[in-house]
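Handout, page 2. Input:
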Amino acid sequence: MSGDGLAGFAGTEDPVHDNERREKILMLDAALSRLSDEQRLIVLLHDTEGYKLNEIQELTGVPIGTIKSRLHRARARLREILAQSGTFF
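Output:
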């Protein structure tokens, strides 16, 4: 499972639901790959791993204002990408 990215998450007992979920995860993974490295890191640390902004600042050395800006822009870009693919309404 390591190295599978978001596609490695376990599913449920319902194959149809699992397939739909897997497709959405693959679309999200593809959308994340279109972000800049800096934006992707902030989104993954904050939204996926649950780090607080001050913790991200300590890890990266990036000022909190810059982290907030990158997070805001990254989320907006993800919405844009996912809306184009029909994943986000």
